[in-house]
Amino acid sequence: MVNRSMLIGGVMILVLIGIAVAAPFLAPYDPMAIDLKGELEGPSSSHPLGQDKLGRDILSQILYGARVSLGVAVLVVGFSVLVGTALGAIAGYWGGAVDGVIMRLVDVLLAFPGILLAIAITGILGPSLFNVIIALSLLGWVGYTRLVRGQVMAERNKEYVIAARALGAGPLRVIICHILPNVMAPVIVEATFGMAGVILAESSLSFLGLGPQDVPTWGRLLQEGTQFLLFAPHVATFPGMAIMVTVLGFNFLGDGLRDRLNVKRWA
Predict the structure, then answer these.
(1) How far is the C-alpha of 63 from the C-alpha of 45, rounded, in Å?
(2) Backbone angles phi, psi at 183, to 5 degrees
(3) Does residue 266 fall inside a structural domain?
(4) Model pTM greater than 0.70?
(5) What is the CATH number of the domain that holds 228?
(6) What DSSP string describes 185-208?
(7) Residue bearing the bigger pLDDT, 34 or 113
(8) Distances (CA, A) of 264 to 112, 142, 151, 267
């Protein structure tokens, strides 16, 4: 039976990916091209979503902004999953002092509010796309570490693991070939929700002026639009809708995958 939530979310994300990849061909204008004569003009036949305070085409900026948001999300979540899975598997399998060191580091990082630490890091390093990725990656892996550690601890003493050890498989082979394939379902679900979280975080940093300044981003568009809500609401409305639809798409997909894989979300 087709999971409706997963289908809707999957279609939304596939459309978004297509838009991001084809942005140079779909965008009617250069997203950074200035046209002061069209300052804050509303939607029209030549500019379907209107123009911003410098006359730049909002549709083109949103299309290119999709590339930034998806690119940051993929890189941050990919790094977080790799590091978090590796450290969680090590901590959960060996336990003892190794587990203690890794989990104390996780506890220390979890003591800091994630978005505040990201703001501090980007504020120190300066606003750029690379610095946003660094800031969001520094804390992104800790949740996956906790999740994988708990799953590995539940699996490490099961019969199939004991049998693999009895046949002479080393710890690395046991972890990679036997345990991890059986614990990745919740990681996949968590990564899907994580994509939505990273997109929101990146938009928040851009809204605060800490995101990249040389490329269009949804957060910066939204921030610029808040100055003109009373007489040019389109400047903020359309970027806000882009963020909302994207986050909803990943949440729908995550909900569907959770139901399909029969996974309980890690609290």
Answers:
(1) 17
(2) -120, 5
(3) no
(4) yes
(5) 1.10.3720.10
(6) HHHHHHHHHHHHHHHHHHHHHHHT
(7) 34
(8) 26, 18, 12, 9
Can you give the residue range of the structural domain that contains 70? 4-14+58-261
Q: Rounded distance, CA 136 to CA 197, Å?
A: 10
Number of domains into which the chain is organized? 1
Report residue 99 as tokens.
């587990």
Q: What is the pLDDT of residues 166-197, one digit of tens each?
A: 888 888 899 988 899 989 999 999 999 999 99
* 10, part of any domain: yes
Question: Is the distance from CB of 256 to CB of 3 less than 8 angstroms?
Answer: yes
In one-letter notation, the amino acid at residue 153 is M
Task: Give the CA distances from residue 165 to residues 148, 174, 177, 182, 183, in Å, rounded to whole numbers and listed in that order.
Answer: 20, 7, 12, 16, 18
Q: How confident is the model at residue 115 (pLDDT cuts 50, 70, 90)?
A: confident
39, part of any domain: no
Give the pair of three-digit tokens for residue 221. Answer: 């568009």
CB atoms within 10 A of CB 228: 15
What is the residue type of 151? Q
CB burial readout 161-196, b (16+ within 10 A) else e: beebeeeebeeeebbeebbbeebbbbbebbbbbbbb
Assigned domain for 22 exists: no
Amino acid at 40: L
Phi, psi (rounded to 5 degrees) for 31: -65, -20
Residue-wise pLDDT for 36-85, tens only, equals 888 889 899 899 999 998 899 999 999 999 999 999 999 999 999 999 99
